[in-house]
Every structure is written in C-alpha cells, then in structure tokens.
Amino acid sequence: MMPGSRSYLCYLNLLENSSTQMPDSPACRAAVQQSGTTPLYNWFAVLDSNGGGRTTGYIPDGTLCSGGNRGPYNFSAYNAARSDWPKTHLTSGQTIELRHSNWAHHPGRFDVYITKSGWSPTQQLGWGNLEKISSVTNPPQRSDHYYWNVQLPSRSGQHLLFVHWIRSDSQENFYSCSDIVFDGGSGQVTFGDGQTMSADEVAEASDAAEATNAAAQAEYSEHAAHGEHADHSAHAQAPVAAPAEAVLRTVRDSFFGWLG
Questions:
Q1: Average pLDDT score over residue span 180-200
Q2: I want to staple 130 with a disulfide (CB 3.0 to 4.6 A). Which of 74, 79, 113, 150 is the partner?
Q3: What CATH code is carried by the domain that includes residue 221?
Q4: For the chain, counts of helices (H) and of strands (E)
C-alpha cells in the first residue's frame, strides 16, 4: 500500500523487529503496547461489514483511522493524535500513483481525502478536517494492489490521506489513514526512530510483506472455506499471525538483512 497506511507501515516496522515483536517506531510501539500485534498481522482488515458508504454521523470523529471501531480487530490505537507516526515524504502538487491492497478483490469505489491546510497531526482527525481530492470506481489491478493516479493539492508540512473503499457488491467498507509530509520528497518513508527507507526499499518491503500475507492466507485457506468473500469480518479473524511466523523469519532474513 502506497503511501503506506499507519497499520501497514507499523507492520513493516514489526517485520524488521520480528524477533522481539516490538516495533522501533515510537508511535507503532505505543499502538502495540495498547492492542498487541494481532492487528498488524491483519493490517489490511480495517473494515466495517455494515459501513454502506456512510461517513459523517456514522463514523465518529476521532475514530476514522479504525473505521469507527466496528471491525474484527482492535485498531483504536491507530487513531492516536501524534506527529511521529511513520510518514511518507512527498512533493506538493505532484501526481502520485496511489496503491491499495487487493487482498480482497471486489468491485467498488475508492474515495480519497486529504486534511485541510491548518490541520495538525496532534489533533484528533474528524470529517471536518478532510477534503475529497479523488474518487475512482473499479480501478485496475496489478499483482497485489489496485492502482490509480491522484493529483495532490498544494500543501506544506504534515498531512494525512484517508482512503474509504466502498464495496458495490455488499455493505462492507474498508478504511486507511496514511501520514504524509510535503517537503519535496519522492516517496521515502521515515519511521520516527531515525530509520529511513527509500521509495525503492519501501517497494521491496511491500513485495516481501505481500508474500507473507499470501502465505498466511494460503495456510488459512486449508482450514476454512472462503466462499465468495461475502463478508470478510468473519474469516478475517483467522489466526493469521501464527502461520505467518515462519514466513516472517524468511522475509526478515532475506529483505531486512539485505538492508543491513
């Protein structure tokens, strides 16, 4: 997922520290201390099975990054208003290729919002802080993600991208919050702990993470029928972390060992 969401980048940070199961990033570490690692092994499952495209008045302010706390996992810690979440560095006004995990393949619309000028990452995110900058229906897919171009508005400093995926074949909705900073960057990610990954390294980590997800999902598929993915909240509660552990060790050794 690019720009990486809070849960996704914390997941990458966890992979790098899988031996301790504790991220280095201060914000990610605080989230794990609050709700454990299970949400990160299921970082893509910020969902509401009955979302139905509803926004203001349904998802309370301060809970947007957890989809209103109605999903199968506890992502409430990822609503924390703090400035040290892992963030992607971008350039104001540029056009980026936004990528969203296609772990669940479904038709629908993606609405992309960005925080308004004057917003601070230390204040709770509410609907009134957002402005919609893109909406796309049934974007194309490649390998592990949907993708489409989004032109970023003129901004400076820290901001947040909020993506709301509204399925057209059910009431299920998915949500994500991506912390970004407009400083002339080209996609590199900083984790708040002194660690920086280039855009290419983030892409490599994304491939490794998706391989982990695929392996875990395949393992789970041997034990449960997925049907037509009518509702992911039920099977999303599979113990994804357990079958992924061996894969995580391989990913950590091969990718993060290469980074040094």
A1: 91
A2: 113
A3: 2.70.50.50
A4: 7, 11
**Residue at 248 is within a domain:** yes
104 vs 202 pLDDT, higher one:
202
Distance CA 128, CA 232 (A): 29
Paired with 48 in beta bridges are: 173
What are the E-state strand segments in the chain? 47-48, 87-90, 95-101, 108-115, 130-137, 141-142, 145-151, 157-167, 173-182, 189-190, 196-197
The answer to whether position 1 is within a domain reads no
Q: What is the DSSP letter of 2?
A: B
Q: pLDDT tens for residues 109-140?
A: 999 999 999 999 999 999 999 999 999 999 99
Alpha helices in the chain (DSSP H): 6-16, 26-35, 38-41, 199-221, 232-235, 241-251, 257-259
Q: How many domains is the chain partitioned into structurally? A: 1
Instruction: In whole angstroms, give the CA distance from residue 105 to residue 115.
Output: 28
Rounded Cα distance, 256 and 97, in Å? 25
Task: Identify residue 130 by its one-letter amino acid code.
Answer: L
Question: Which segment of 128-137, 219-228, 245-254 scores lowest on mean pLDDT?
Answer: 245-254
The answer as to whether 227 is a domain residue is yes
Could you tell me which of 128, 119, 135 has the C-alpha nearest to residue 57?
A: 128
